[in-house]
Design goal:
Elements (H helix, E strand, L loop, with lengths): L1 E10 L2 E9 L5 E5 L4 E9 L2 E4 L8 H5 L6 E3 L5 E2 L3 E4 L2 E4 L8 E2 L12 E5 L4 E8 L10 E10 L2 E10 L3 E2 L3 E3 L14 E4 L1 E7 L5 E7 L24 E6 L10 E4 L6 E6 L3 E5 L23 E5 L14 E2 L5 E9 L1
Antiparallel strand pairs: 1-2, 2-3, 3-4, 4-5, 6-16, 7-10, 8-9, 11-12, 12-13, 13-14, 14-26, 15-25, 17-21, 18-19, 18-20, 20-23, 21-22, 22-26, 23-24
Length: about 325
Amino acid sequence: MAVTVTEFGSYQGERVDQFRLSSDTGVEVDIIPFGVVVRDWRVPVAGGVRSVVLGFESFPPYLTDSPHFGALAGPVANRIAGASFELDGQRHDLRANEGKNSLHGGPDGLGRTLWQAEPDSGNTTVRFSYHAPDGTNGYPGNVDFTATYSLKGNRLRLELTGTTDKRTPINICQHQYFNLGTTPDVLDHSYQINANAYTELDAALIPTGVIRPVAGTPFDFRTPRTLRDTAGKPVPYDINLVLDQTRNPADPVATVKGPDGALTLKLWTDRPGVQLYDSVYTKVAVPGLGRRSYQHYSGFCLEDQSFPDSVHHPHFPSIIHSPEAPYSHFSQIEIA
């Protein structure tokens, strides 16, 4: 087990290192402090090693062409309607970056920020930290964020914290795009997600506030299924699924099996929701890892999170944190 540090690029005059976490099972995970991006993740399979995430071989495409590949999305992941919210009687205007709405913290959110990094080779861990001054991107409060990635065997664990001096919304998620197979798309993976409901969306992908049961809908993944309909056509997914809150925390909230049976992904989290995104809108102009072309349905995301646009829906689980109630969140993914 080890952490190896190499130079990967530079950003605004600062060196950007890459931290390679290596485990005793042969798994290697490469992480860079720009956006705390999981750049590559390699897992042993019969006959060799397989890269299981979407990313780039060099640093510049992360600035120009990345749809949040491997990054941390925040300080509020997903969408905020109208790029604004009211808190304690005060209106806060954010920077819109998806029409009139704010997506993943805006154009300069946590996933497009250079964090500080402290590797701990003895524990195969890297701790990233970032200080956001009051008013950064429109959000109130001086907030100190930490993101700690630890690799043990085939499990990569992420622990997130946010401490603030003012009440402020925080809802961070990992935004890794996975492909467990060897084909260009992820439509024929087998997906099982322990979610009994979903948050209904309007035409702009903003929650209406209605929580509906998944039974009888394309959002029912309680039993394993692919991302195709009964006619074999691709089904577009960009939806927040409401996880079963009575679940056993020892059980994964999602299990995805690759089409060739070589690898299975399991996700554990303490969040109330998970966004399933199947890259329906993804089309990347430059080559990715291994010179691969990333087009529609090229990867799947399981973004464990609180519900989108929670700042406008008081009946959703609250994402408002304070000095007395700091933010904490864990996410753990095993691929074997």
